[in-house]
What does this fold into?
Amino acid sequence: MTAPMPKQDKAPQSQPKSQPKSMKDITALCKRRGFIFPASEIYGGLNGFWDFGPLGVELKNNLRDYWWRKMVTTPPIGPDGQPVQIVGVDSAIIQNPQAWVASGHVGGFSDPMVDCRETKLRYRADHIVVLIPKDGDENWIATADDDPETIEKRIKKVGKGKSVANFEQKLLTELDPSDYAKILGPDTKEVGSLTEPKDFNLMFETRVGALATSDAKAYLRPETAQGIFLNFKNVVDTARVKMPFGIAQIGKAFRNEVTPRNYIYRSREFEQMEMEWFCHEDEAKKWFDFWINTRKEFWLECGLKEESLTIRPHDQDELSHYAKNGHGTVDVEFKFPFTDPGFGELEGIAHRSNFDLTQHQEHSKQKLEYLDPERNNEKYIPHVIEPAAGLTRGVLALISDAYTVDPDRPSGVFLDFKPSIAPKKAAILPLTAKEDHVPLATDLYLELREQYNVDLDIKQNIGKRYARQDEIGTPFCFTIDNDTIEDKTITVRHRNSMKQERIKMDEALSFMDDAMRGN
Ligand code: GAP
It folds into this structure.
């Protein structure tokens, strides 16, 4: 077994970035409208933990359900024109700790970390940017990350009148530790305070049962994948699957990230949508290519724009321990506001070879081979192609991509969600809170809510209510006014164009059906 190496996001690019969408504005909208809140906010929050509010949970559930539908309920058509077979599981978050020894996580799921002797702060070594003066000045300046704003501020403070252009930017991990003595740490006044990088295991430990003995130690899972491998034999024995096939799982994962950052992009508790595709080694390349294309297509179908996505193969030195042998790993990357004009990982598609099942077979002493009747009863440990997506990170991608600045409307912004992904599909708005508008609006609401997640919003002037629906990305508003009383027609207001049309009230449901079909 190769020594396990941490699975890391690609080190951030250090060129200056233009930021057409501001993360500050996006996070403010998410807070203001109830998408995402800091966890335990009334106690000052907890770094790396977030709560999803009423609209955030709807959006997250829509993405989760769409993934499940596209992967498990109606999985894609394979390269041979036949639908592929994928079944689901929902495994425990806490498993026998031996499973994490076998998977390589206990020994090696770590990030390199440096401590600051002066401030006692801790940083991820591969995120620290060192600014080296081009004029040969020996005072090097470090920042905790590659955010251009942070770099500029730090240079302004300690850069002796120099500007960004006067520095060469390198990652700390690219430097020799003998150079550390020259470096002014990200939050220090004196140079030479950073320690050499040490590995820090990212797994959260817990205890099972009342006994405080060492054999009560267990871990919160750092990935959902292992719960799938642990159930491989159960699924083969019970689910009438035959090679090739997939097992899918959606659920929480926990990583004690050294530097959680960029909002919910890198948090300590998050959700994953993972599928392990088991196949014969000879077919691994075919399926690897198939899943790369299929997964990119999925994100486009969710409404992400083509120009916001890219496919990036991992460099050899980035590969996780399980992906070292085989066809490697390819990321579907998204242009997040804080990576723009670059991209950041949204999903990884890895050829995990037969690493995990081999490890579990060795450690558990249980046979995990597959007897393949289609290959003259050949016995083998299947290879695995794994599309591993972040659910919470996917929510951030959906919100960032949908965020559209529009100075021509009162809200100044709207969320351009695809109707099927939008948290609310329509809002029913009585023009006034007058008695004759409200009962009709309530009737329509009661009818539509049987099929769709819709809002009945009665109070405030209509402009403010439209603005609210624009900000939460509701594609349609149905307005009930005096004409509705007369002729039973309602106004439909379209979110993106703000155009209005008149339809019959009893056609609202079929209007929604048409609008949602394929959307
Ligand atoms: N089973 C393989 C695996 O876990 P990964 O690339 O470490 O691979 C898969 O994780 C996906 O999970 C990533 O592409 C990302 O979307 C999401 N993810 C990983 N770490 C995360 C974190 N700290 N916060 C939010 N999402 C994360």
The chain has three domains: 1-32+414-519, 33-108+206-400, 110-200. The pocket of glycyl-adenosine-5'-phosphate is lined by residues 7, 223, 225, 255, 257, 266-267, 270, 272, 274, 345-348, 386, 388-390, 392-393 (CB under 6 Å).
